[in-house]
Amino acid sequence: MNSNPSLRDLYNPPSSAWAFIPPPPPMQDARVPAPAPAVTSYQWTTRPAHNSIFDLSPSLDLSEPCSLDVSLLLRSLVASALLQYTSTALVMPLEVGKLLLQIQWIPKDAPAPSSQIYEEEEEEETLSDSTNEDESYFADPAASHTKYPAPKPVDDQGYVIRTSVLEDGTRPEYIIPVGSMNGTWDMVKRVATFRGEGWLSLWKGLLTSCIHDVLFSNVQPLVDSLMHSVFLSSAAGLYRPPLLLPVASHVITGFLLSPLDLVRTRLIAQSAMQRYRTYTGPFDALRQIIAQEGGIRSVYFHPQLLIPTILDNGLRPLLHILMPTLIAPRLGFGPHVAPDISPIAWAFAQVLGSVASLLITLPIETVRRRLQVQTRGTAKALRTCAETRPVPYNGVVDALWHIVTEERSDLPIKRRSKPRKQQTEHAEENDSDDLFAEKQDESRWLRNTGIGQLYRGMRMRVGVSVIVLLLTTFGGQQEVDGGWAEL
């Protein structure tokens, strides 16, 4: 009996070269000619093909020396900077109009002024109609009962004291008249046509706003990643990160960039007229603020600047995260609404959440702008193009209280060119002779409260949220910016 052949004789060591070569054909009879090979062999090469994806890297082989394309890098940076600058410039007029509405002070107890010119003209018409020329010629001037306007109060130097912000005669030439703007677009048109401002004033603080936006969009993700790496372990990667970390990253970033936000507010609020301008640019503004208002420590840690910064930068991300999760289950689309399951329902919930968040964030933003306009230390009062409160606020709570209790919200206040003529003997007692006609009755609550002053720019923000909803619904996007823009 023959033994089984050993498997050791059948072993064939593999080739060391990795090649796509077909196996040789089986042995055939020598009388039959072998057919020509139909498959072409391809040898595997170690050098990869050229990377043609945007030509960002000439080669994917890490063993080869890689050189930096400086021209490509510079072109990318210039294109990114121009894109950011253009996008900021497009929304800057609306930002200027909103900020000027937020800092504008309109007291409710300001007495409406009387026009001395119109009173004198009406008095002359009354005398010419009721008296004879001969009688007026022989009349005793001392015995005349003609009523003349009461003299206006003056100071020690003889200048007329301004008793109302509604008076045009005593209003400084660099201040835009109050009471004629009810919305952001109205303020934009008023700034463009005002003699002391003009169209170029709609882009005040553009460079500072662009730098602030670029730094915020790059520093905040870096701070957030750093905080996640420090406070979260690698094992917690599958779990949802805590709510505190994104809120804290926004607060820290807003705190670090708060001097830029202060400079931007001052540049927008100041008058554009050369003789009333305080700062010539962002660097000059930052230098004067540090030199005259307590140094860099006061810029960061002054209570009137630090507390509004923390509240403004903390409430925005907190409400941005919480509001959609609270509103989404109540939309009727089911108990669980998520961006990947119901993108349209989630986008609608985010828009509603952003609108509801404005009821809380807009008053805080308004108070922050008013406190930023106030100067401190040895600095002179800022000459703003909008009417501001002559007495400074003491803090966030004090500003909220005085805005609600001492200001009015019934805007716009209509002007009329001339008071009505007196028709009867008692018309002088009944006619107020005011230059301003109240559009709404004084008994209405808007006339007696300043709550509307806390929500200037609300309609523009709601319009932006609706546009974002439409773009998300019809554009197929799954991410909605629920009011994070400066607008």
Automatic annotation (TrEMBL):
Asked if the Swiss-Prot or TrEMBL record annotates the protein with the keyword Transmembrane, the reply is yes
What are the boundaries of the region Disordered? Answer: 112-136, 412-434
The UniProt entry lists membrane topology as: Multi-pass membrane protein
Is-annotated flag, keyword Repeat? yes
Q: Where is composition skewed (Acidic residues) in this entry?
A: 118-136
Localization, per the record, is: Membrane
Name the GO cellular-component terms: membrane
Q: Where, in residue numbers, are the Solcar repeats?
A: 241-326
The organism sits in which domain of life?
Eukaryota
Short name of one Pfam family: Mito_carr
* PANTHER family according to UniProt: MITOCHONDRIAL DICARBOXYLATE CARRIER-RELATED
Q: Which family does it belong to?
A: Belongs to the mitochondrial carrier (TC 2.A.29) family.
Q: What is this protein called?
A: Mitochondrial carrier domain-containing protein
Q: Which organism encodes this protein?
A: Suillus discolor
